Amino acid sequence: MTAEPLAFRHRHLLGLEGLRADEIDLILDLADGYVAQNRQADRKNALLRGRTIINLFFENSTRTRTSFELAGKRLGADVINMSVATSSVKKGETLIDTAMTLNAMHADVMVVRHPESGAVKLLADKVTGSVINAGDGTHEHPTQALLDALTIRRRKGRLAGLVVTICGDILHSRVARSNIHLLNAVGATVRVVGPPTLIPSEVENLGVEVHHRMSTGLAGADIVMMLRLQQERMQGQYVPSFREYFRFYGLDYEKLAAAKPDALIMHPGPMNRGVEIDSEVADDINRSVILDQVELGVAVRMAMLDLLTRRERTNAQ
After folding, report:
1. Burial of 316 (0-12, 13-18, 19+ CB in 10 A)
2. Count of H-run helices and E-run strands, the chain
């Protein structure tokens, strides 16, 4: 596949806040082409031959890290997965020391996940290559929102004008924040639904409708995006029990009936079946696009690696 000569004005992808609709379209259009490549028998090309990508994950991840690894390898890059559990970080090395050490190895792209909001930007300020935020604290997870958008656009044909309802633990969700920024930029209507304890204060300022009842939040929705309870980020009691939470906020067919008959069901994973979503709903082959999200994640990450290395590739020619 030959890359189109289109420029992306950003050196890093640290978040979606501030990205224009045309920039989002550029990413999604390019990713669409990579979907086709990934469905061929020969899925590799040599676009990034000689380039080095480092996956630096300070938090556990299966989908995101594997997806970035596949994306890099399918573009012909050398991909290194850094295990923080056995790295010098565990020996007391600071994030800045780690950044400078890796920078000395001349990595072209660093893909970074970190439990603290803002840590990825701190690292990006210290390196000469590009940095992709693979999730930082409760701040943002931009490539997840981009793959969500691509999934919706391929199924619905558009993003503008759709009603997207994000349900669950909004307070701790970087996925929710990135989706809110993206969906507002492209002209969708965004609602959030959850118990008051899991809705951030003043979240309305981000341009969303707030609901505390699934019946009103899902009314007429085109997209129902479920989020898991992020217990690892919770200090204190946010819900009485999982059973009580599922009763009021778990997605089952009874609650889903409030949405449009062709509403799509989404989940960024990992799923807690029986907590935020019923297994029968999650596995509905006609309405659930959860596996589509996983597949399209590789294509979106290929598009980002392509775009963020274009300037260097052009200069090297």
Report:
1. exposed
2. 12, 9
**The residue type at 238:** Y
| Secondary structure (DSSP) of 258-269 | TS-TT-EEE--S
Pair of tokens at residue 33: 């082409």
* C-alpha count within 13 angstroms, C-beta hemisphere, residue 101: 11
Please check the confidence at residue 4 and state whether its pLDDT lies above 70.
no
Structure tokens, 76: 């012909």
Task: Evaluate if pTM is beyond 0.85.
Answer: yes
pLDDT at 185: 98
Mind listing the pLDDT tens digit for each residue in 39-66? 999 999 999 999 999 999 988 888 999 9
Q: How far apart are the first and last CA of the chain?
A: 18
Tens digit of each residue's pLDDT (9 = 90 or more) over 58-111: 888 889 999 999 999 999 999 999 867 555 555 556 778 888 888 898 999 999
> Which position has the token pair 């217990």?
231
DSSP state letters, 37-65:
HHTSS-----TTTT-EEEEEESS--SHHH
Estimate to the nearest angstrom the gap between the alpha carbon of 85 and the chain centroid.
Answer: 24
In this structure, the number of other CB atoms found within 10 A of the CB of residue 244 comes to 12
**Encoded tokens for 182:** 């993206």
